[in-house]
Amino acid sequence: MPERSINARPGVVPATRRVAGTMFAALYGSLLTGPADDVPHGTDGELDAYSLFYHRSLAMGWLDDSSAGGDRDNGMLRSGGLWATNDAGWQHPAAAPDADLLSWFQVDASAVAGDRPLPVQPFLHCAAEVTARQGPLDLSAVQLLLPVHGLDPASRPPYAPVPATRTSPWFTGHGPADRTPVEITVNSGREPSLPDVAVQLTELLADLGPDVFGYRSHDLAAADTTPAPLFDDSFWNGPPLHGVVLRGELVEWSCDAIGWLAEAVADAVARLGVGTPLLFTAVRSGQGS
User: For the purposes of burial, counting CB atoms within 10 Å of the CB of 69, is it exposed (0-12), middle (13-18) or buried (19 or more)?
Assistant: First the structure.
């Protein structure tokens, strides 16, 4: 398992790995029941979020452990997965006391192939599975850091200009009762370019169709409407000064659907020339984190 005694820093990755950048996820809400007695615990008697996330990533083939030691010249091959795990936890010192933080996870996303999106869907799926080991989740909000600067729109093939659209059939079969009103805040920090392309962004999202996200309206986001991220401004391009609020309906309120939309937004924004990390916050309408 990677060494955790060194404080995580953004962008500090082994020279042998090609990366898109740092992804961060914070899940907010509550647990419907307490943790199961038979779940593995850490040395402090609590569930170990990092260990669970690391090993679940490894089991699913999502972990990039190509820098975890070994020498290819000596026949030691390591897997090139979707991310290298950096850190994770249940609590965080930067979380507000009333924020209802459930968990947080930080990874270094591997370089993205031309016909693939940022791996936000598997990242959030893994995060939700790990968090649910504490008990069934009542999720109220998800906040993500998306390394849009690691995307190359020119590498997208004609059949997949927004690669997330290739997986939208996964969400078929849901009825109207599953559709959930949401507010999505996308913020480019100190970089002012995102509000300038807000209209084009909504047009691109509308062109994707309403199967996963049905766009309804948008506004420019005030600086204080975005929940404060759990990391320092120097970690990305903060503080969150320039944002857009997107309103609409998700096909379902799940980390899979949120991850799909985050992937689509990241590629749409990159196509519009925004090349800075984005803070992406999904909240069920009428709820806060």
Answer: exposed
Alpha carbons 52 and 14: distance in angstroms, whole number: 23
Q: Which residues of the chain have pLDDT under 70?
A: 1-17, 34-46, 67-79, 223-226, 286-289
Alpha-carbon gap, residue 151 to 271, rounded angstroms: 9
The pLDDT assigned to 35 comes to 54
Rounded to two decimals, the pTM is 0.87
Q: Annotate 160-196 with b (16+ C-beta within 10 A) or e (fewer).
A: eebbbbeebeebeeeeeeebbebbbbbbbbebeebbe
pLDDT digits (tens, 9 = 90+) for 51-100: 999 999 999 999 997 755 544 545 555 668 999 999 999 999 999 888 89
CA–CA distance, 241 with 201 (Å, rounded to integer) = 18
Give, in degrees to the nearest 5, the angle at Cα 22 between 203 and 51: 125
Question: pLDDT value at position 8?
Answer: 40
Nearest by Cα to 117 from 148, 158, 79, 86 = 148
